[in-house]
Design a protein that fits this description.
Layout: H1 2-12, H2 29-40, H3 46-53, H4 57-69, E1 73-76, E2 83-86, H5 94-101
Antiparallel strand pairs: 1-2
């Protein structure tokens, strides 16, 4: 967390012109796969993610909470009709995330 805070402070002071707020965030393979599914379908539910990745729903919930805490992911709108927004500004293209599903 200290590493992320360091970059966030530098970004807020304008010392990192091209770095995102969450520069330096290290994601697990599972978190990358979750993001990939969300990039493909921003309306995907946690239950659908769990089914697609063949993991427990509580594991998806825990990882999504971590991604929200890291400000990599946020939920817009209502629980039932809302959508996910990936706010990861460290430039991995959506195609690179989608390729992680197949690994």
């Amino acid at each position: 967390m200290l590493f992320i805070s360091f970059f966030r402070q530098k970004h807020q002071r304008g010392e990192l012109k091209n770095a995102g707020v969450n520069a330096g965030v290290k994601l697990s393979k599972l978190q990358e796969k979750i993001i990939a599914l969300i990039v493909k379908n921003s309306n995907v539910s946690q239950a659908e993610i769990a089914k697609n990745l063949k993991i427990n729903a509580s594991t998806v919930y825990r990882n999504i909470e971590k991604l929200k805490q890291l400000e990599v992911l946020e939920r817009k709108g209502a629980d039932k009709t809302g959508s996910w927004v990936v706010t990861l500004s460290e430039a991995k293209s959506p195609r690179q995330y989608i390729n992680t599903i197949n690994q």
